[in-house]
Amino acid sequence: MPSTKDEITGFLASEFPQSRCVVESVGGSAATISFTVTSHDLRPGGTVSGPVLMKVADIALYVAILGEIGIVPLTVTTSLNVNFLRKPAADKSIVAVCRLLKLGRSLAVGEVSLYSAGSDALVAHAVGTYSIPPRDVK
Amino acid sequence: MPSTKDEITGFLASEFPQSRCVVESVGGSAATISFTVTSHDLRPGGTVSGPVLMKVADIALYVAILGEIGIVPLTVTTSLNVNFLRKPAADKSIVAVCRLLKLGRSLAVGEVSLYSAGSDALVAHAVGTYSIPPRDVK
Amino acid sequence: MPSTKDEITGFLASEFPQSRCVVESVGGSAATISFTVTSHDLRPGGTVSGPVLMKVADIALYVAILGEIGIVPLTVTTSLNVNFLRKPAADKSIVAVCRLLKLGRSLAVGEVSLYSAGSDALVAHAVGTYSIPPRDVK
Amino acid sequence: MPSTKDEITGFLASEFPQSRCVVESVGGSAATISFTVTSHDLRPGGTVSGPVLMKVADIALYVAILGEIGIVPLTVTTSLNVNFLRKPAADKSIVAVCRLLKLGRSLAVGEVSLYSAGSDALVAHAVGTYSIPPRDVK
After folding, report:
1. D48: number of CA atoms within 13 Å, CB side?
2. Which residue in D86, D102, D125 is closest to B85 by CB distance?
């Protein structure tokens, strides 16, 4: 039972208000989200901090999974592996594009490419695994 | 040229004031830090969010490296791999214990064990790599 | 100074004769290789063993990097992260498609998608990092 | 229902004869195995190849898990993350020490430290996850 962009947007707003992520698109085992960078998200040198990128990657993966299985709050991250590749721009949003690699009965695995808005040079790349509660798989 | 606990504490306070991490000990290719959990750090279900754990793991690794090489701000994370193992307590601090596995000429690798204060059950485990600027190695 | 498919094929044959990997294509920060599965590569249950998949992923990454920087034997793996997604067919070759995410001065990072020949369902996905010796970067 | 060192040794000999790993000890959520390096395991430069180290790490994790849950052949690797830290000696066995970080209902996570026999300098470090079939958990 997939959920729509509006349903996921509403769920994030009520349950994860501090995430500040905008769902740009979701569906087809994929999702794109964006995140507006503020001064709190920067580290010395004027670049977006690593933990902020990890948070955005984690949420992109979560959104892509919810888009497939519906709003299942007990879906939780079990692992996240992030490579930091280039300094993100301090004055651009972060855009995260997630593609699910596997959606199994109890585990989902996906990869996330992170960019500074307006550039196609990767700033980071993540692969993560979520544990999903038992459900009926078609 | 190692740096001391006081030097690193001062550096974090001036450069990473939002980190809210306390250096408990540093030296001998290791570091222990603690992080007081607030309501902003929780996710639905009353548990500490994954990105908060990743941030604490990243800083523990940074502190352990600065303890060996001195205050080198250009030291940056190149990868972080985190496994989430158990739900952390919402009302306990997070304690992160880092041990460096390698301190090379241009890369440092370390592992971090994360606990809820007062418990010896791991809540998460991380392995991360930092790129360190060229320097004289003894 | 990139190297060609023939140069890399010759290099692998002389230096890594036991790799048994065939370079299908290389160039444009990417590479595709194939690996013929034999009975020695199987594990109980009639599936290709995980270490074999890891070896093929590692070589795909190596080939993609050599395709960009030329034959540089001292290029060595520093990390490899593999997710095993589906059971590979025992009687099909493994095909590995690598795309470089970053080719820096001293580090290269790439991702590898592994398939059973003739199927577009991922059997495994890997992200790896190679350390590359200092060289002139254009 | 844990299994003993002898039971696991017999199981590996019959099901994974090509593994060539010797179980040195197992129990207490841990295991130590050794692997005799032959010329087939070396790569140019006279060092043990990365895929061989990954194989040994994978088996150490498998042995530690079997030591806790008994001989359960359907236990399979779902992810392995390896960092290569120092060149292993070409003429020494590889010793792998595994410690389980979590043994859950359907997932086990462990870390593995790899050494050249007789040295306490890490040559590689791995963290891996196994999927374990449903069973009764005490």
Report:
1. 28
2. D102
